[in-house]
Structures are given as C-alpha cells and as structure tokens.
Write a structure and sequence with these properties.
The complex is a heterodimer. Chain A contains 10 helices and 12 strands. Chain A has helices at about 30-40, 55-70, 85-95, 105-110, 110-120, 155-160, 185-195, 205-215, 225-230, 235-245, and strands at about 5-15, 15-20, 25-30, 45-50, 75-80, 100, 125-135, 135-140, 145-150, 165-170, 200, 220-225. Chain B is globular, with a radius of gyration of 16 Å. Classes of the chains: A alpha/beta, B alpha/beta. Chains A and B meet through α2 of A and α1, β8, β10 and α7 of B.
C-alpha cells in the first residue's frame, strides 16, 4: 500500500536554509543542496524547497540551487514561495521541481490553480494553506501568515481542490513552531472534506508526534517539518523505525 | 546512449539528470528520425492521455516510436509514457495508444476502494510477477523495493505483460509491463525513486537491441 511520507521542508533565503519559529526569528542552518542530499540518503520521501526571498536576485539564486539539488537528489521535489503566475510554475519546473505549491498567489488570483492544473496536470499543483483559528472558525492567512484573508479554510481548500489542486499542505499556525504536536482537529476537518492527499504541517516536536498524527488521523498522507529535522532533534531513520514499529506503513530499505 | 523523446509533454530535467548521475550519456530529441536511429529510447509523459497521444501524432513521434519498437530498439515508457504503450485509454473519452502492450488504461476511481486517495501520490512496494522476475530492467530489484507513483489512471488487462504490481487498498494495480521483447513500461517514476530507480535506469541502459516486440 501507499506509505505515509516524511517530508523535510527547507526554507531558503539568499541561498541558505532558514527556519522561522512562528515565522519570526529566522536562524541559519545549512546549505540547501547538502541538506537535501543528506535527507535523501537518510530516507526522506520527498523534499519541499520554500523560497522566502523577496528580491529578483534572490529568485535567481534560488532557482540555481534548486537545479543543483535536482541534479543530485532523485526523490520528488516540491517548490513553494512566491508562486503567483504560470511563468513562476514554468521557472521552477524547468529547474527540476516536480510539484509547485501555491499559497498567497492563489488567494490573489483564484484562477491560477485551474490554469496551472490544465497546463501541468493536477498532480503538479499543491494548495498550501496557512490556517489559524479566529472567532471559532478556521481562517486562511496570506503573505507568510501576516494577513487574515477572511476566507474560511475548509471552503477555500475545497474550492482549490475543485479547481484542480492535486494535493493539500495544511499548515496550522496555531501549532506551528510550538513543537507540541500536529493540529489533529484541524487536520481531521480538512481530511474529511477533500479526497486528495493531505500533508500535515506545523507542530512536530518529537517522534511520537508523527506516530500520533498517523494513528489519530489516518486520512493524513504525509508529515512535514523543518527545524526538528535541521537541528537533528528527530533523525529520519529513527522516525521511520518508530512508525514501522507502530504498524504505520513507511518506506524503509534505502541506505 | 539513451535518447529521451521530447514531444512537448512533461519535464525532462530530472530524467536527464538521473542518467548524468549514473554516468550514462543521455540526449533529448524532438526529431523523429533521431528516434528511429536511437540506441535506446525513453518515452516520458505527464498530464492527460488524449492530449499526449495527440502531441505524439502531431510531432511525428507516434510513427517513429512504432518504427523504433519494430526495429527492436529498447524502449522504456514512464508514467503516462507507459500508458501510451497500451492499445487505448478511457481517460476522458476514448483514445488510441501505440498498441505495443495489450490492454487499456482505465480510471482508478471505481477500481480501487473509495477510501483510497486519488491521485495516488507516494511510495509503494513492488510485487514482481514471474515475468517481472525475468525482466532485464529489474535485474537489480527485489520484491518489496519501494518506488514513487503519481497517477489517477492505471494499465488494465495487460495479461502476461504484467511485470510488477502494487497494492492499493487491497487491489493490485499495474506498476510495470514488459512484453518480453524490447518494450518496457513503468507506471512509477524511476528518476524519482531514489537508488532503486537509478538501478532500474542503469539496467535499462544495458539492455541490448532485441528482436520482435510481442
């Protein structure tokens, strides 16, 4: 059967990997290409490269780094960050990305997902949503979690999937950076609403958080995290072994 | 030398990179005559079957691939490229394929249990058939090895050409086909399947020119 995926996320700025704690206080970690290669060898099932650069120069550095990683790492690569047009899709797909995740770009231009899905296929288009509880409802935030869009998250995600998004990354801002575990109620709600794969993001602090995630919300297909992997707090082989021991299907057997 | 067929469908960067990584020369071509004179061929593809089949025809590649297969040039179809090897597809209508592998391409929805996600995205473990056990591109592969899939349709009724399948919610889904000659297909992406995938590409780049296709 299809295994649950473990996905390290590399936030890249000016050619380096960074990770925000609650999106602030960014701290340098390592070289994106070296880290990507290291994770692939360790058994990561997929990698996300998130471009948090604002400048055109930074964009160029990012695509160079992406291409370098794609020449050395042969697992799926998803790229996100600053994707707001079909030419952004083209730019990263040419450099070896397999999937492109859209966040604020889809909020600004709701036709983007449909057009991209038509041109590159549903499997290529990932809707990534930063979601936070506001007045008892799940609200979508834009621009790296800075702007409340007023959009209700489940409706928004369903609409994006209806337009052709083939996968969902659900990042709970309520649990992100806190390392107290994934946002199980939020994930359950979204998994019940869509039939495409859902990737959980935000809140991983220890191995048991992933075990709890896959056991409590079987509809979740993958767990994504950044700093716990970058700082070595969770080693991917240990994580996979722990999941397998709990009877959760994972890919084991690479070096 | 491996020739990757460019007919305007899909992303060839990773395929080229993976051959470079394993030290095999690879070239990308959109010239049908280069396909006819190739040493071995990769037919890639993502997206919709009907659209891709139309592009194969309009680019002159459809006939070129058939000629190459007829001449025994080893051919590996990947993902949609594998599906194009089949006789026909029922993806949004009915479309003719290359007919190099018997059978048709059908939606997974309705075939695998409703509880399974579609598209199927992720790693699954191969169950090799007897045919698969003899298949030259799997010479360094063992039962249970994991490979990476992204698809919503599957190759159906390929009979003896079934080389490997995967389990999707208790139902076997075609993962690879081999007619027994020089035509191979993988539903999964060897260029995205880590070391296992690279070993498959390495084995394919050693397959000698063969005899009849079916």
């Amino acid at each position: 059967m299809i295994t649950k995926r473990i996905i390290p996320c590399l936030d890249v700025r000016d050619g380096r990997v960074v990770k925000g704690v609650n999106f602030k206080d960014l701290a340098d970690v390592d070289s994106p290409v070296a880290l990507a290669s290291y994770y692939s060898d360790a058994g990561a099932d997929e990698l996300v490269f998130y471009d948090i650069t604002a400048s055109a120069e930074g964009r160029r550095i990012f695509t160079d780094i992406l291409a370098e990683a794609a020449r050395r790492v042969f697992i799926p690569l998803t790229v996100g960050g600053g994707v707001s047009s079909l030419s952004d899709f083209e730019r990263v797909l040419r450099c070896g990305a397999d999937k492109v995740s859209v966040n604020s770009g889809a909020i600004k231009d709701p036709s983007l997902i449909g057009e991209a899905a038509k041109r590159y296929g549903d499997q290529c288009v990932v809707i990534s949503a930063d979601v936070k509880r506001v007045n008892g409802e799940f609200r979508v935030f834009a621009r790296g979690g800075r702007d409340d869009t007023g959009l209700e998250a489940v409706e928004w995600i369903k609409r994006c999937v209806g337009n052709g998004a083939g996968e969902v990354v659900l990042n709970s801002m309520d649990t992100d950076g806190v390392k107290g575990g994934f946002d199980l109620p939020m994930l359950r709600t979204v998994c019940d609403a869509v039939s495409v794969p859902v990737i959980a993001s935000g809140g991983a602090g220890k191995v048991e958080d992933f075990v709890t995630l896959f056991r409590e919300v079987p509809g979740v297909d993958a767990g994504l995290a950044a700093s716990v992997f970058h700082f070595g707090e969770i080693k991917i082989p240990d994580l996979k072994a722990a999941l397998a021991a709990e009877g959760i299907p994972v890919r084991i057997g690479e070096k | 030398m491996v020739t990757i067929i460019d007919y305007g469908v899909g992303n060839l960067f990773s395929l080229e990179s993976s051959f470079a990584f394993i030290g095999e020369d690879a070239t990308v071509t959109s010239d049908p005559d280069a396909v006819r004179s190739a040493e071995r061929l990769i037919l890639p593809g993502v997206g919709a079957f009907g659209d891709a089949a139309e592009k194969l025809r309009s680019s002159g590649m459809f006939e070129a691939v058939l000629d190459a297969a007829e001449a025994g040039i080893p051919l590996l179809g990947i993902c949609l490229g594998m599906q194009l090897l089949f006789e026909k597809s029922f993806e949004y209508g009915e479309h003719g394929g290359l007919g190099l592998i018997k059978g048709s391409v059908r939606p997974m929805r309705g075939y695998i249990p409703d509880s399974e996600k579609i598209p199927q995205i992720g790693w699954n473990s191969l169950a090799l058939t007897e045919r698969g056990g003899e298949c030259p591109i799997f010479e360094d592969i063992k039962n249970g090895d994991f490979v990476y899939f992204v698809h919503s349709f599957y190759g159906s009724d390929c009979g003896g050409a079934l080389a490997a399948s995967v389990d999707c919610g208790g139902v076997p889904v075609t993962a690879a086909v081999w007619g027994g000659g020089s035509v191979f297909g993988t539903q999964f992406h060897p260029e995205k399947s880590g070391d296992v995938g690279l070993r498959i590409l390495k084995s394919f780049s050693k397959v000698p020119k063969g005899g009849p296709v079916l």
